[in-house]
Design goal:
mainly alpha
Length: 239
């Protein structure tokens, strides 16, 4: 049974400061990478690779600001709590994935296999979040909210980690991206500029795509969760 949330005290007190801190760090790292190598801005569409993640991070910060309002909706705080804890779990999976891709030299076949498994794990956990949210509340909407919020928590920390890792991942990324088809097609003459742009672009893509994917997969999980909850309710009523 759901209950009405009268204030935001049901949310972890550290939640908003932690998310704002991660977002601020991401923005600071963007500025740092450009300050350390400003020629990137002179490359074709160089500014777009900076502005896209910066704007998206500001949007994420605004959403974090609105969390108390969401928490006051019936079941909202429960969805945000579930999404937060599951999001931290999935963020750990993403951090492992990013570390392996950026720091560990493995055969391409093995890299693709490991990356695929970890990506599938991420998507599955977003679906599980939607299932649990709907099963507990018997509301598909609450399940979807939990899944989407889970994905946003995941990517907030994953993007920050990815931008920070760029500081120490130059040797691996230089070797890996020198023959990358995207670099060859870009016609950029500066590999270092491309590495920075590629990292910033990947962050922006993840910030956009994650909530959309979670909306779909979480919606499927939430629909199943509600059906299972309703089936259990019917069985309990006939006992």
């Amino acid at each position: 049974m759901t209950r009405h949330i009268s204030d935001s005290n049901d949310l972890p007190r550290w939640l908003r400061p932690a998310l704002w801190g991660a977002i601020a760090l991401s923005l600071g790292l963007i500025i740092l990478h450009i300050a350390l190598y400003s020629p990137m801005l002179a490359m074709p569409d160089g500014w777009s690779f900076v502005l896209a993640p910066a704007v998206l991070l500001v949007v994420y910060a605004a959403i974090v600001l609105a969390l108390p309002t969401v928490a006051r909706v019936t079941g909202g705080a429960n969805a945000l709590q579930l999404g937060t804890w599951m999001g931290l779990l999935v963020a750990a999976v993403e951090l492992v994935n990013i570390s392996l891709e950026s720091l560990v030299a493995m055969p391409q076949t093995l890299t693709s296999l490991v990356t695929g498994i970890l990506m599938l794990t991420t998507f599955t956990l977003w679906g599980v979040t939607g299932f649990l949210g709907a099963y507990r509340s018997r509301s598909v909407g609450i399940g979807v909210l939990a899944a989407v919020w889970c994905s946003m928590v995941t990517m907030t920390f994953a993007v920050t980690f990815g931008y920070a890792l760029l500081v120490v991942a130059w040797p691996r990324l230089t070797t890996f991206l020198a023959t990358d088809p995207d670099f060859l097609r870009s016609h950029w003459s500066d590999l270092r500029a491309f590495i920075i742009a590629n990292t910033l672009s990947n962050g922006a893509v993840h910030l956009v795509e994650a909530p959309i994917i979670a909306l779909v997969i979480g919606g499927i999980g939430a629909s199943v969760g509600r059906l299972v909850a309703q089936g259990r309710a019917v069985r309990d009523a006939h006992r």
